[in-house]
Design goal:
Elements lengths: L2 H7 L14 H12 L11 E5 L2 H8 L23 E5 L5 H20 L1
Antiparallel strand pairs: 1-2
Helix pairs in contact: 2-4
Length: 115
Amino acid sequence: MKFEEIVEKNRSYRRFDQNHRLDGSALLDLVGLARKTASAANKQLLRYVLSCAPEVNSRIFETIGWAGSLPDWPGPDEGERPTGYIVIVSDRDAWDWVRGDLGIAAQTILLGAAA
């Protein structure tokens, strides 16, 4: 697949098939891509928390805002929720350095998933 096709295939998904279970290796592969991207001043301040466990996913789900243009929408219904999460975290004091890194890492993960 050409890079342009991957970019065109990528989009913001808000509904998923909860019957499709992810295993940790798929998430690790995506984080592996993100870890190879640029980092401001090579500080490498991002950390990744992975979950494929339904009970942890449920706790993560409750913290997510799903659609900025639909502030009253609580997110997808049961059966349409993600079965895996990659949570990207960093030290709060590092925010000035980490903003660019966060965008690059998140986009890399999304493009890797689309591919």
